[in-house]
Specification:
Layout lengths: L1 H6 L18 H23 L6 H4 L2 H56 L7 H23 L19 H26 L3 H9 L3 H30 L26 H23 L9 H20 L5 E7 L10 E2 L3 E7 L9 H4 L3 E4 L2 E4 L3 E3 L2 E4 L4 E5 L7 E8 L9 E6 L1
Parallel strand pairs: 2-10
Antiparallel strand pairs: 1-3, 3-8, 4-5, 4-9, 6-7, 9-10
Helix pairs in contact: 2-4, 4-5, 5-6, 6-8, 6-9, 8-10, 9-10
Length: about 425
C-alpha cells in the first residue's frame, strides 16, 4: 500500500495531509518513516529495472553502477535518519503504555479477587495482595516517568544494541514476582494480631520453604549479568558482530538480531514463563510463604538457563575471506586481475545479523592494498544482489600498484576479516 502511494506520487512528505509527518511528534515520526521507506523501495526497484538513469552515465556499466550506488546510499541514510527519529518517538511514548499495563494488572487482580471472594469471603491475604500490587504498579509507574525518554519501565531490559534483552527480561520477571510475594507477606504480617500467625508468616520466609525459587532467582540474575559480559567481550574481541537497532521490539525476546527465531531464546522464555505461572499459582494458593517451586521444575529452569548461555557462546563468529577471483561476464576472456577489473570476494559473515538494511550495506568497505573501496549497492527487484553475506564484488581501483596486494573486508559492524593476498598485473 505504501509503495503504491509513493508510485502514484503521493503527497508532499513535509505536508500534514494524511497524518503529520514532521519529526516532533510520535505519529509524525512514524508516518514520515513509513513514507521514506516507501519512496526508497520505489527508487530501488526503478534502478533495478534500468529506469531513472541519467544519459551521462547510462552508456557505461561501471559509471551507472557507481551512480546508482551513491543515490541509493544517500536515500538509505535518509530512511535510517527517519527510522532513528521514529524509534526515539516510540520510546518517548512507551512509558505511558507500561504504566497503563501495570495498572491494568492491578485492576485485573482486583476483579479476580472479587470473583473468587464470592462465597469464601474477603480475607486479609486478598487485601495484602491488592496492596502489594498497588505498590509494585506505583513503583513501575514512577520508574517509567523518570526513564520516560529511554522506554519507561522497560529501560533496564533494553540492551546496548537497542534491542530487548531476553536474559534481562526473564530476570526482571522473577524479580517482580519475588518482590510481590515478599510484599504480600509484609502486608499480612502487618495486619496479623495473633503471635502464632506472625510466627507462621515469618517461617514462610525460611530458605527451606523457598529454596527452589531463590535458586532460580539467583541463576537467572547471574545469567543476565554474565551474558552482558560475554557479549561485550566477544564484540571487543571481534568474535561477534553487533549492529544497533532503530528501536526495541517485543519479537527481540524470541529472535536473533536478524529477526529469525532463536531456539536458545525461545526455550528460555517459554520454560521460564511456565515456571513463573506455576510460582504465581502457588503464591495464590499459599500466600503465607514464598512460592515453593519444586526442585524438579527448578532444575528444568537451570537446564534451560545453561542452554541459553551456551547459545550465547556459540553464536556469531568473525567474517572470513575464503578466496578472491576475477569477476567474469559472459563472453569475456580468461585473464589475470588488472586495475579496473571487478573482483569477487568469496567468504562468509560479510553481512552481520541485523545489517541487511541499505544504510548498513552502504557502510561496507574493502581494502585493496592501501585503497579503501566502498562496496557498490547493486539493486534487484525486492532487494540487493551486491553485497551479499558470502559474496562481494568490487572494482580494483587504478591507484593500486601492480604486484602482490592484500585484500581485506570491513563489515558494517566494524569487524575486519583476514587478509587475502592477490596478484595484480599491469
Amino acid at each position: 500500500m505504501a509503495v503504491q502511494e509513493a508510485r502514484q506520487g503521493g503527497a508532499d512528505p513535509a505536508a500534514h495531509e494524511g497524518g503529520c509527518t514532521c519529526g516532533d511528534c510520535p505519529h509524525g515520526a512514524r508516518e514520515g518513516h513509513r513514507r521514506a521507506v516507501a519512496a526508497f523501495l520505489v527508487k530501488r526497484d526503478e534502478f533495478a529495472t534500468g529506469q531513472g538513469l541519467p544519459a551521462a552515465v547510462a552508456h557505461s556499466a561501471s559509471a551507472s553502477r557507481q551512480w546508482v550506488s551513491e543515490e541509493l546510499a544517500q536515500a538509505a541514510e535518509a530512511v535510517a535518519e527517519r527510522g532513528r527519529a521514529e524509534g526515539a518517538a516510540w520510546l518517548a511514548r512507551l512509558w505511558q503504555r507500561t504504566a497503563v499495563v501495570a495498572w491494568a494488572g492491578v485492576l485485573a487482580l482486583l476483579l479476580v479477587q472479587a470473583l473468587t471472594a464470592i462465597g469464601a469471603g474477603w480475607t486479609s491475604a486478598r487485601t495484602a495482595g491488592l496492596l502489594a500490587a498497588v505498590l509494585v504498579a506505583g513503583a513501575l509507574t514512577a520508574a517509567s516517568w523518570f526513564h520516560r525518554a529511554r522506554g519507561g519501565a522497560l529501560a533496564p531490559v533494553v540492551g546496548e544494541d537497542n534491542r530487548l534483552s531476553t536474559s534481562r527480561a526473564v530476570a526482571g520477571s522473577w524479580v517482580l514476582l519475588v518482590a510481590f510475594a515478599v510484599l504480600v507477606l509484609v502486608g499480612r504480617l502487618a495486619a496479623a494480631s495473633d503471635h502464632r500467625e506472625r510466627d507462621a508468616l515469618i517461617d514462610g520466609l525460611e530458605l527451606a520453604r523457598g529454596a527452589g525459587v531463590v535458586t532460580v532467582l539467583a541463576v537467572v540474575c547471574g545469567i543476565a549479568v554474565l551474558v552482558r559480559r560475554v557479549v561485550g567481550l566477544r564484540v571487543q574481541g571481534q568474535r561477534l558482530q553487533k549492529v544497533r537497532a532503530h528501536r526495541p521490539r517485543a519479537a527481540d525476546l524470541l529472535t536473533d538480531d536478524s529477526g529469525r527465531g532463536s531456539f536458545a531464546d525461545i526455550q528460555y522464555v517459554v520454560i521460564n514463563a511456565v515456571a513463573l505461572a506455576f510460582a504465581a499459582v502457588r503464591l495464590a494458593r499459599r500466600p503465607d510463604q514464598l512460592p515453593d517451586l519444586p526442585w524438579g521444575l527448578a532444575v528444568v529452569v537451570l537446564v534451560s538457563a545453561g542452554t541459553y548461555l551456551a547459545g550465547k557462546y556459540a553464536e556469531g563468529g568473525r567474517p572470513v575471506i575464503l578466496s578472491v577471483v576475477r569477476a567474469r561476464e559472459a563472453g569475456d576472456l580468461d585473464a589475470p586481475i588488472r586495475t579496473g577489473d571487478d573482483i569477487e570476494i568469496r567468504g562468509t559473515g560479510f553481512v552481520p545479523a541485523g545489517a541487511q538494511g541499505a544504510d548498513r550495506l552502504a557502510r561496507m568497505v574493502v581494502r585493496v592494498g592501501p585503497v579503501n573501496v566502498h562496496v557498490p549497492l547493486v539493486p534487484v527487484v525486492g532487494g540487493f544482489d551486491n553485497p551479499a553475506d558470502d559474496l562481494l564484488t568490487v572494482p580494483v581501483p587504478a591507484d593500486v600498484e601492480p604486484g602482490r596486494v592484500d585484500v581485506q573486508v570491513v563489515t558494517a559492524a566494524g569487524v575486519e576479516t583476514n587478509r587475502y593476498t592477490i596478484d595484480v598485473t599491469e
